[in-house]
Amino acid sequence: MRPAVVAHRGAAQQAPENSLAAFNDARRQGADGVELDVRRTADGALVLSHDPGIAGVGLVSELALAELPGSIATLREAMDVCAGMLVNVEIKNDPNEAGHDPTDALCAQVLAEIAASGQSDDVIVSSFDLDTVVTVRRLAPRMAVGLLLDLVADPFVALETVVAEGLSAMHPFVLSVTEPLVVECHARGVALNVWTVNGPGDLELMRDLGVDAVITDDVPLALGIIDA
Fold first, then answer.
1. What pLDDT does 12 receive?
2. Which of 43, 44, 127, 124 is nearest to 92 (CA)?
3. H runs (alpha helix) in the chain
4. Domain coordinates of the chain in residue numbers?
5. Residue 13 has pLDDT above 90, yes or no
């Protein structure tokens, strides 16, 4: 099985991460898809930002859309630019960060935006926050949903949670991926989308192990190795 090559925050080596330019560059480079990060502004807009705050501006959750730099893309704009590609929509909803929403509202809004784009079949929604992905699974049973794992998470323990919650995928850090993990995930119907896979050796290993996707900062390198 050929892993999909997913551009981490777009082709962020060529353009600002999570920008429309980065997504356009990823398409031109031949990426199968893009990964992006979604947060909500104070006035309810869904925008792309990996960090909770924007340097020199403030916290995304405390600012209105009009107060953000014009370079900050909305989820709707990103979905339009990425039409026809795989899109990994990561919902940033860390309980320890500003803007955390413990209700269904943020997940419901993200799902509504995806549905409005007409691209639901090309999207997987992910988050490091278990409650968030469980909520997405409940609100949209047909949506592909993946649990992101941090650097120190035990992927075999996490797999039990993923299966119990009926999630589609698990997104572990590259150094935690082994052949037994890939075999076990696939035996239990769980896709394995691995972040962030940048080195030639890691790319070759993930290809040979048969993971479902590599999320990478270097699309040309990844394609050259995955398709070799």
1. 87
2. 127
3. 20-29, 75-81, 105-117, 130-139, 155-164, 179-187, 200-209, 219-226
4. 4-226
5. no
Torsion angle defined by CA atoms of residues 110, 31, 184 and 157, in that order, rounded to the nearest 10 degrees? -50
- Spatial CA neighbour of 190 closest among 124, 131, 136: 124
Rounded to whole angstroms, the Cα distance separating 216 from 135 reads 27
How confident is the model at residue 196, as a pLDDT? 98
Looking at 3.40.50.2300, 1.10.287.40, 3.20.20.190, 3.40.50.300, the CATH number of the domain 4-226 comes to 3.20.20.190
- Tokens encoding 198: 């940048």
* Residue owning tokens 């959750």: 61
Contacts of 192 (CB under 8 A, 6+ apart): 169, 170, 171, 172, 177, 181, 182, 185, 186, 211, 212, 213
Residue with tokens 């992101």: 148
User: CA geometry: angle at 57 spanning 52 and 62, to 5°?
Assistant: 55
Predicted model pTM: 0.98
Of 132, 197, 137, 198, nearest to 163 (Cα)? 137
